Amino acid sequence: MHSEFELITRYFTPDPPGLDAGVSLGVGDDCTLLAPTAGQRLAVSVDTSVAGVHFPEAAPAAAIGHRALAVSLSDLAAMGARARWCLMSLTLPAADDGPWFAEFARGFHALCDATGTTLVGGDVTRGELAIGVTVMGEVPPEQALTRGGARPGDVLAVTGALGGGAGGLALWQRGERDLAHPLLARYLHPQPRLAAGLALRGLASAAIDVSDGLLADLGHVLEGSGVGAELTPEALPLAEGLVAALGEASAREAALHGGDDYELLVAVPPAHLATARGRLAERGLALTEIGRVVDTPGIRGVVLAGERGWQHFQPGGAPSGGAPPGGAS
Amino acid sequence: MHSEFELITRYFTPDPPGLDAGVSLGVGDDCTLLAPTAGQRLAVSVDTSVAGVHFPEAAPAAAIGHRALAVSLSDLAAMGARARWCLMSLTLPAADDGPWFAEFARGFHALCDATGTTLVGGDVTRGELAIGVTVMGEVPPEQALTRGGARPGDVLAVTGALGGGAGGLALWQRGERDLAHPLLARYLHPQPRLAAGLALRGLASAAIDVSDGLLADLGHVLEGSGVGAELTPEALPLAEGLVAALGEASAREAALHGGDDYELLVAVPPAHLATARGRLAERGLALTEIGRVVDTPGIRGVVLAGERGWQHFQPGGAPSGGAPPGGAS
Fold first, then answer.
1. Mean pLDDT of the residues in chain B
2. What does the entry list as the binding residues for Mg(2+) 4 (chains A, B) (predicted)?
């Protein structure tokens, strides 16, 4: 624990967290001491965001802070875990960039506040801008949403809308800088679906967050569960403004293959679907049916073309066409 | 959780850890699920090691892997925590450096094995070589060794020997490459004092690991505890080979100011000293008395000179000379 980070943490959290936040000894000692909830599993994950790789270096500093935390919290959401704590490894190019850092911290801290996540440690090093965020959350042992629970007959559904991450990136690369544009907002300020993950405990049989692209992440679920899927691609909910920005064909490509959406893809037994949809509606979030889990491995309803994997989208589906070997993982 | 890291983790731990390692769901899902021990505090810390800053880029890959984990585990040792789990954020310059990575993993994994630490997650990004390691350990609430418990009359003592980190770095910079040299071994393969931390539970009133240099870290304890210290600098245990390599004066400078020793500096009530020393002796480790905790803030026994802080060392001490403002923090 570096002293420079103690200052930063104080900047982030002027009021030291206490036992109500599960923190029995805060930043400033060799370790932080946390009080996990008895009987719960501790869900942990780490994601590192690198400038120029995972986000544009010229993105607004507040968005960089928000996004670095959001992509890690999205993994907690996908487990149905409640967010509790995080640690940050910050690599900064220069020591004297106060205004940038203040904005960065504001974006990070605002998402901490909004999600009930407490920053409990970190360090600062010098180098190319990169932010590693370790997140810790809690979930009852029997209620964790894994990738391995999908069963034939389950409905496949996604929260929110797809393609916004890829669409926003495309707009950014074209020079669009209006942060109020819905696609840029989706790309720069992704919303981890923590509330949805909690609401789907006991209802969904499997879940994953859509970070690599819907088909790739669906492939992970199918592989983990030993099943296949029939997709209804025309049912994919498209992010607001996506068709206007990219055109219909590219919009659907973005929804199928684009990454960085951070929605949840879930498998839900039909008997639970209405309840699941109702709970998410109460939270202002759509849950859209996009297919079914089937016995036979692979994905039906889309066509595989060429060596790059899933290339072309056929709105009508092609049941006999495109199941990739091994379930599109 | 990136799929590339799943492969790496499998490389590291070919046998998936199970519930005996407190892992109820291993790497390969959105999060890993851990089973913390009921009634214990979870001690967490993160440290990032950057090539060219925290270690020489040309250091042996196995040493880089070992060292990156060791510096984080040292923080658990200083809390008296038992090491349980770790996550790694690895930034690698190139994707195809297989032999380097195999050695790196061997060094990291060997220290995991030796300390009972299970790698439970991580990610890999491309960029300048850097390794961020988040560690998690456990300690009973009342037995954590903080920086804030030192009381006047306590003995100040250090485990092992000092100056080896700075001495080893000096040798490396002079071109010494014999890894069997005791100072290079100290610098490249620091040993986190986890067993000492466990043995000192219930005996030490305060502890810190010597990462920034003895005086700097002593300052942290004094500040945390609201006390001062009288040092007996001639009592400092010097690392094997240090005087021969650096000469007497620089050796003592290295012991006082050098960083990267990763020994424990502890405050121990006199009534517990013999027991503490006996327990460490059973583990093959010396515990050397180097001073006393006193009421009056500051550090006596060494002389402060110039603006850079603690500069010069006087073997005979200078009780009236050098208490810095605010306790040498």
1. 88
2. 30, 45, 75
Q: What is d(CA B264, CA B290) in angstroms, rounded to the nearest whole number?
A: 12
Q: How far is B41 from chain A (nearest CA, A)?
A: 5
Task: Give contacts of A122 with chain B, Cβ < 8 Å.
Answer: 46
Mean pLDDT of chain A: 88
Chain B nearest-CA distance from A244, in A, is 32
Condensed to tens digits (0 to 9), the pLDDT of residues B140-187 reads: 999 999 999 999 999 999 999 999 999 999 999 999 999 999 999 999
* Res A13: pLDDT: 60
Of A24, A41, A78, the CB nearest to B141: A24
Contact: A132, B89; criterion CB under 8 Å: yes
More confident residue, A21 or B38: B38
- Chain B CB within 8 Å of residue A214 CB: no
Model pLDDT for residues A159-203, shown as the tens digit of each residue: 999 999 999 999 999 999 999 999 999 999 999 999 999 999 999
The beta-strand segments (E) located in chain B are 23-25, 32-34, 41-50, 82-92, 118-126, 130-139, 155-159, 206-209, 228-231, 264-268, 287-294, 298-300
- Report ipTM (2 d.p.): 0.88
Amino acid A329: pLDDT: 31
Asked if A136 and B44 come within 8 Å (Cβ–Cβ), the reply is yes
Residue type, B15: D
Q: Chain B closest CA to A68's CA: distance in Å? A: 14
Distance from CA of A97 to the nearest CA of B (A): 20
Q: CA-CA distance, B165 to B158, in Å (whole number)? A: 15
Q: CB burial class (10 A; 0-12, 13-18, 19+) of residue B329?
A: middle
Specify the DSSP class assigned to residue A225: H
* Residue appearing with tokens 């391995």: A148
Q: Is the pLDDT of residue B87 over 80?
A: yes
Residues 119-148 of A with CB under 8 A from B: 120-123, 125-128, 130, 132, 134, 136-137, 139, 141, 144, 146-148
Domains recognised in chain B with CATH numbers: 3-29+41-142 (3.30.1330.10), 145-305 (3.90.650.10)
- Residue B211 assigned ligand-binding role: yes
Please give the share of chain B, as a percent, with pLDDT higher than 90: 74
Least confident of A22-31, A130-139, B99-108, B291-300: A22-31
Say whether pLDDT at A1 is over 70. no
Tell me which H or E stretch contains A257: helix A248-257
Tell me how far apart the alpha carbons of residues B251 and A73 are, in angstroms, rounded to a whole number. Answer: 48
Query: Max CA-CA distance within chain A?
Result: 61
- pLDDT, average across residues A212-226: 96
Could you tell me if A108 and A101 are in contact, meaning their C-beta atoms sit under 8 angstroms apart?
Answer: no
Binary contact (A127, B50; C-beta < 8 A)? yes
Cα B144 to Cα B316: distance, rounded to the nearest angstrom? 35
Q: Which residue of A has its CA nearest to B220?
A: A29
Residue ranges of A 259-318 with Cβ closer than 8 A to chain B: none
pLDDT of the residue at B260? 94
Strands (DSSP E) along chain A, which ranges? 23-25, 32-34, 41-50, 82-92, 118-126, 130-139, 155-159, 206-209, 228-231, 264-268, 287-294, 298-300, 303-304, 310-312
Interface mutation target, options A7, A9, A46, A82, chain B, most CBs of B under 10 Å: A46
Average of pLDDT values for A63-82?
98
Q: How far apart are CA B69 and CA B134, in angstroms?
A: 9
